[in-house]
Amino acid sequence: MSRPQSLLPLSREPSTRLLPWIIGVMVYLAVLIFAAALLLANIAANWDREMSAGFTVQIPPAAGDAPEALEARVAAVVKTLKEAAGVGEVAVVSPEVTALALEPWLGPNIEAHDLPLPRVVEVHFADRATVDMAALIAKLEEAAPGTVVDNHEFWRNQIVSLVGGLETLATVAIALIGFTAMAAVIFTTRSSVAIQRDVIEVLHLIGATDDYVAHEFQRQAFWISLSGSASGTVLAVATLYLLGQLAGNLDTALMPDLSLGAWQSVLLWAVPLLACLIATMTARRTVLAALRRMP
Amino acid sequence: MVRFENVGMRYGAGPEVLSDVTFALKPGSFHFVTGPSGAGKSSLLKLMYLAHRPSRGFVTLFDRDVTRVPRGDLPELRRRIGVVFQDFRLVQHLSAFDNVALPMRVAGSREEVIRKHVTELLTWVGLKDHLHARPPTLSGGQQQRVAIARAVIAHPKLLLADEPTGNVDDTIAVRLLYLFEELNRMGTTVVIATHNRSIISRFSHPIMRLREGGLVEIKQSAAE
Q1: Among partner residues A5, A207, A295, which is closest to B52 by beta-carbon distance?
Q2: How does DSSP assign B103-133, residue by residue?
Q3: What are the pLDDT digits (tens) for A55-104?
Q4: Structural domains in chain A?
Q5: B109-114: long-range contacts (C-beta < 8 A, 24 or more apart)?
Q6: Whether A207 and B50 lie within 8 Å, measured CB to CB
C-alpha cells in the first residue's frame, strides 16, 4: 500500500504555484541585505578599533621658525608623549611621508621643506584607560605652543552615524521583505482555503478538528517555503561568492576585510530557516482564522 | 440518542425549512425519513450530523444539547456519527482507499489497523479491485459504495444516510440496506432519508413523514 495521499494538494493550485518563487526572491534579497549589513558593521568596527587605538599630534611651524627650531619643538613633544602614562608607540612622520600623503592635492613635484607643512606625530595607546587626555594636551601645549591633538572623534562620530543609518535602512528593508512575504502567504492561504472549502467541510463533518486541518496546511506551507528559501539562499550565497571574488581582484590596501565571522555566518543561514518558520506560522494562523468562520 | 423539541431551521435570513419538529429516537432504533422533494429531509439530517444549528428549539444528541455545545466540542460528537451524503462528497483527488480511511486517520488510528479495516470493508462492498481508483473514474454506484464504506468504517453510534440508494439498482440497494440493518443489530442507530417506496415497504422499520418542513406523522412501519 502506498503512503497516504496529501489531503489538501495545495502545491497543485494555481494560486500556490507562485509562492515558492515569491519566497525565494524575498529570501534572496533578505540574505543579501543582511550580509551587507553584517559586513558594514564589521568594517565600521575595524575602523573604530583602528581610530581609537591612538591619536595624532600636529606641530605647525611658527612664522619665521628655522628648521632646527621646528625640530626642537617636535623633540619636546615626543619627550612629553614618551613620559606620559599609558602612551605606547610614538612615531614621528617624516616631512617626505607627509608630502606623499598630500600628493593627490598638491601634485607630485612638491618639496617638503619648501612648504610650511606641520610635523605629524602618530601616537598609539599602551593603556588607553590610564591616559589623562586633558592633562596631556595641556603639557603638549606647554612643550610646544600651537600643537594640535586630533583624537579622531569627529571621524568616528561621522562613521558611527553613517553605519547606524545604513543599519536602520537594512532593518527596514528586511522588515518590508518579511511583511511582503507574509502578505503573499496570507493571500495564498486564503485562496487555498476557499478552493478547498468542500474538502474542509467534509473533514469537519467526519470529526476533524481545526487543528488537524490547519496542520495539513502548515505542513505543506513548510515544504513550499523550504523549497523557495533553499533556492533563494543558494542564489544569494552564489552572488556573495562572486562579489567576494571580484573584491579579491582589487588592491587589498584599498579594500577592507570582507569576510564574515563564524557566528555571523550562522546568523545568515538562520534567515531562510526564519523565513520557513514565519511562512508556516502565518499559514497556520490564517487557516485557523478562516476555519473559525466556518460552521 | 436523538431528541428534537420544537425545532425550527432556516438558511441565513430565508424562510423556515423546518418548523416545530419534535421527535425522539431511541438508541439502536432504525428509521426511514420520507416525504416529497423540498419537504426538509436533507435539512433534518443536516441538523443531526451537526452541519447546521437550529434557529430555534432544542436538539439533543448523545444526551448533549447541541444547540449550545461549544464549537470545539463538535469534532468529538461528529466522530460518533457516520454520514452518507446525497452527493457522496468524496474527496476527488484521493483514492477510494484514502477516502474510506479518512475518519480513522482523523481519529488518529494506526496505519496498519486502517489498512486492514479499509481493505476488508471495500472488499465487502465489492470494490476490492478499485482500492486505488479515484472517484472520477468510478461509476455512480461505486462512488456511493465508497461513501457508505466511509460512513461506517469507524463504527458510528448514529448512521445517517441521505438517499443512499439513489444511484444503485434494486439489487445493490437491498444489499446496502442489509448492511445498514447489520450495523443496526450491532447497536448503531440508523436514520435513512429516502423516497424509494419499494425499499421502505420491503423493510419493516418506523417511518417519519415530512411535508413542507413539518413532521406530519411517525408510522411504525409501511404496512401500518
Answers
A1: A295
A2: HHHHTT--HHHHHHHHHHHHHHTT-GGGTT-
A3: 899 998 877 777 788 888 899 999 998 988 888 888 998 888 887 877 77
A4: 10-49+156-292 (no CATH), 53-151 (3.30.70)
A5: B111/A4
A6: no
